[in-house]
Amino acid sequence: MNHDERRRLPPMSMLHGFEAAARLGSFSRAAEAIGLTQGAVSRHVANLETWLGTPLFDRNGRRVTLNAAGSRFLDEIAPALAAIRRATGRLIDPEPEHVIELAVLPGFGMRWLAPRLPGLSRRHPDLVANLSARTDIFDFAAEPFHAAIHVGAPDWPGADHDLLFHEHVVPVVSPAFRERHGIAEPRDLLGAPLLVQSARRDAWTRWFALFGWDAPDPVTLPSLGHFLMLAQSVKAGGGAALIPSFLVQPELDAGDLVVPFDAPLSEDRSYWLAYPRSVREPAALSRFRAWLAEECPFQP
Q1: What is the mean pLDDT of the chain?
Q2: What is the DSSP letter of 218?
């Protein structure tokens, strides 16, 4: 490593002290958290500021506040420090080879993945899959997950993707609603009560456009924030809705909901298993991926 490279890599003690002080907003609390004196943390931060040639905190008596340069620096080094902690922890205390931690979309976990886990257990009795509900895209290096379920395009930063299936959105109604409103063909929905999922208010507009018809103004349609809530309202006879078929398969199988005609809405959305790019894939993830590929008929 040449001098310039060393100059760009401050000692870990300085970075550790700065990160703790910035995260906790106090030199004294940082000292308690990392087992040093307040004076030691203050010296580490001061030495880092000298190393970098710029202040990282604004000081007002005993009060310190992270400044703009410090905020930018923290945003960039915090994920790297978290990744170092994770890598070190795995070497010191290796993860069990039979456990996989998964971040899953709530609806996907409840309606698609959880019912299939008994099959996973039969195939791999020693494999333990722990599911946590997450809807956001996160940095795998800073989180305790081996993989995540992602919907949309294969665009999770720093991740590889396995295609699970393409979304298939269908119109659904309750049997009683179908009889009451005489729903036998797509045109019959023009005068029927319609419901929407709040993140896809334009669904009916796009669906009616398939037939060249104008849809009601989406703003006037009642909306619900989650597809499973929407399905319950449809089941109760509140209206018709466009819902991904896998989310309502139990209701369709039970006859509580019906697809009145074959007229799906084409959506350019797919479900993916996203996992961090790595030279060494955990054994549990490899086994889970192989099982998942067998469960997904749309796998290329």
Answers
A1: 88
A2: G
The residue out of 61, 92, 123 marking a domain boundary is: 92
Strand partners, 6: none
Q: Residue 240: phi, psi to the nearest 5?
A: -100, 155
Task: Write down the residue that tokens 């870990």 correspond to.
Answer: 12
pLDDT on residue 89: 65
**Domain span holding position 47:** 3-92
Percent helix, strand, coil in the chain, to 5, is 50, 20, 30
- Beta pairing, strands 99-104 & 128-133: parallel
Q: How many CB atoms lie within 10 A of CB 67?
A: 15
Q: Which residues of the chain have pLDDT under 70?
A: 1-5, 86, 89-96, 279, 297-300
Residue 124 main-chain phi, psi, to 5 deg = -130, 85
77 with 112, same domain: the answer is no
Amino acid, single-letter form, for residue 16: H
| 271: DSSP letter | E
pLDDT on residue 4: 64
For residue 285, give the CATH number of its domain.
3.40.190.10
| Whether 232 contacts 112, CB under 8 Å | no
What total of structural domains would you count in the chain?
3
Neighbours of 185 (CB within 10 A): 11
Hey, is 211 helix, strand or coil?
coil
Interior/surface letters 87-101, b for 16+ CB within 10 angstroms, e for the rest: eeeeeeeebeeeebb
What is the Cα–Cα distance from 89 to 106, expressed in whole angstroms? 29
CA atoms of 79 and 194, how far apart (whole Å) = 45
